[in-house]
């Protein structure tokens, strides 16, 4: 018997930052970088190469830091909150060491724009689920995008990782 899971604007799916072994593959890291870019930039606002490289580097460094913390015996959970805290507290030194400049990547603006998704802020619940739902193990999943197609925040988050491969613009019409 098939189980149908309907995900709507109130559903929580698999937490995007969760990684069982703290070593996600490059495709997963790229999807996270795309998600972060969609959260940060407005529709149609182009990203510079330096911004793309920096966001990919933040994701890479985040998982390296999480692995080292876990190996040291720290109890941690990979989620947006820990990513945000890493980006705010630890990454500035890495950025400076890598010779990054505010002219090429505005880290303060990045953090400011992502703040609504952090902790108890407006959208803090979206990316911080402690429950992992492995959608690949379910026999049938229905995304009811009609429920969120006009939402300026939820629609880009939901479609950002897939937007590399599919054109969802017709859903906004």
Give the tags.
5% strand; disordered C terminus; mainly alpha; two-stranded parallel sheet; 2 strands; globular; 173 residues
Structural write-up:
The protein has 173 residues and is mainly α. It has one domain (4-171). Helices cover 42% and strands 5% of the residues. Strands 1-2 form a two-stranded parallel ribbon. Helix 1 packs across helix 2 and helix 1 runs antiparallel to helix 6. The radius of gyration is 17 Å and the shape is globular. The model is unreliable at 1-13 and 161-173 (pLDDT under 50).
What structural class results from the helix and strand content?
A: mainly alpha
* Order of strands in the sheet with most strands: 1-2
Apparent shape: globular
Question: Stretches where pLDDT falls below 50 for ≥5 residues?
Answer: 1-13, 161-173
Determine Rg (CA atoms, Å).
17 Å
Overall helicity: 40-55%
Q: Main sheet, how many strands, which sense, barrel? A: 2 strands, parallel
Mean pLDDT: 80
The fraction of residues in strands falls at under 5%
- Spell the H/E element sequence: EHHHHHEH
Helix count, DSSP H or I runs of 4 or more residues: 6
Say how many strands there are.
2
Distance between the termini: 35 Å
The total tally of domains equals: 1
């Amino acid at each position: 018997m098939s189980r149908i899971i309907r995900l709507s604007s109130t559903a929580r799916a698999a937490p995007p930052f969760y990684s069982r072994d703290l070593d996600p593959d490059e495709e997963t890291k790229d999807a996270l970088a795309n998600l972060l870019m969609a959260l940060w930039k407005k529709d149609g606002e182009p990203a510079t190469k330096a911004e793309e490289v920096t966001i990919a580097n933040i994701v890479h460094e985040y998982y390296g830091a999480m692995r080292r913390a876990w190996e040291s015996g720290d109890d941690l959970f990979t989620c947006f909150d820990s990513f945000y805290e890493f980006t705010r507290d630890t990454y500035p030194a890495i950025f400076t060491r890598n010779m990054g400049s505010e002219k090429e990547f505005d880290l303060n603006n990045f953090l400011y724009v992502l703040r609504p998704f952090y902790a108890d802020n407006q959208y803090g619940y979206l990316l911080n689920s402690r429950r992992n739902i492995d959608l690949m193990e379910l026999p049938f999943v229905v995304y009811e995008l009609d429920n969120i197609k006009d939402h300026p925040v939820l629609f880009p988050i939901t479609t950002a990782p897939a937007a590399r491969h599919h054109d969802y613009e017709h859903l906004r019409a």
